[in-house]
Amino acid sequence: MLYPLLFQPLLKERVWGGRKLETLFQKPLPPNVPIGESWEISDRPGDASVIANGPLAGRDLRWLMEQHGPEVLGKSKADGGRFPLLVKIIDAREKLSLQVHPPASIAPQLGGEPKTEMWFIAAAEPGAELYVGLKKGATREEFERRIQDGTVAECFHRVPVQAGDVMFLPSGRVHALGGGIVIFEIQQNSDTTYRVFDWNRVGLDGKPRDLHIAQSLASIDFQDFEPSLIKSIYSRNQVLKVRYLVDTPLFKVDACQVKRGQRFYLSSESLQIIGLIRGQLAIRHEGQELVLQPGQFCLLPASVGRVALQAQTQVEFLEAQVLC
């Protein structure tokens, strides 16, 4: 019988990364290394998350999907037998490359995978901003010309952000995180990124990182102008306040707030993921209890049914469900 699952984070060195995953979320970072990403739930080739709690500790998500896929997924569907989502925390000490992910309609032709994602801003320094979508009036011709002269960032729409803001990024939307931002990212299980521009910097090996101009131009939605942050607010429910964030054919993500001491229940016929933003949240199932800390994600397999949760402090968390 499956149970609520925690996983060991997979830490990724990135030239633009920093140390905030350690200071904000107590991730055990290696010394003197810029860590940009913590893959919290991953079923990627060579990067399968390892279970950290209970009788299955030491097994990985690839094994779990192979042996217990229907119990994990319930009514959700796997993409080629893989777990359908990839969940990360990203620390952008410096701005990321200007980039795009290919839409499903063209990804196979380019040898890549489509990727739609959402960003929850967990922390942001004053003046932090996103590069998302195109400025009104920007054309493909201008975009291509500015790629050549190194000014393509002038075509990007910039959005100031602070903690709690949310942005949805369908495949085909050009984007980049600016510096001084930490996000929770929930996305399709894909790792295809095409770089348009990388600020003339070098990678960890001291060489310029590859750009993917032809693939990017084939993937970009050149009618995607000046997208907005998600504008939703929390409901007034006294026990469980809900803020509806993203509802797509692929996945649904809400934010929830619960007062200290409140007990509540979750139940679904599909898998769910709980990601704690702040506070301490106890999850109880079949006589066992685990306590989530900020920056931890818990996978609730569909087969666990009804799960009891209790806010040990005032808490805020993301709840993600797979819909496809």
Write the layout of secondary structure elements.
Layout: E1 10-18, H1 20-25, E2 35-41, E3 43-44, E4 47-48, H2 61-73, E5 85-92, E6 98-100, H3 107-110, E7 117-124, E8 129-134, H4 140-149, E9 156-160, E10 166-169, E11 175-177, E12 181-188, E13 194-197, H5 213-219, E14 240-247, E15 251-258, E16 263-266, E17 272-278, E18 281-285, E19 288-292, E20 297-300, E21 307-311, E22 315-322
Antiparallel strand pairs: 1-2, 2-5, 3-4, 5-12, 6-13, 7-10, 7-12, 8-9, 8-11, 14-15, 15-22, 16-21, 17-20, 17-22, 18-19, 18-21
Q: Describe it for me?
A:
The protein has helices at residues 20-25, 61-73, 107-110, 140-149, 213-219; strands spanning 10-18, 35-41, 43-44, 47-48, 85-92, 98-100, 117-124, 129-134, 156-160, 166-169, 175-177, 181-188, 194-197, 240-247, 251-258, 263-266, 272-278, 281-285, 288-292, 297-300, 307-311, 315-322. The chain folds into two domains: 10-219, Sandwich (Jelly Rolls), CATH 2.60.120.10; 240-322, Jelly Rolls (Sandwich). It is mainly beta. The strands form six sheets. Strands 1-2-5-12-7-10 form a six-stranded antiparallel beta sheet, with no helix packed on it. The chain has a five-stranded antiparallel beta sheet with strand order 14-15-22-17-20, with no helix packed on it. The chain has a four-stranded antiparallel beta sheet with strand order 16-21-18-19, with no helix packed on it. The mean pLDDT is 96. Strand 18 and strand 19 form a beta hairpin.
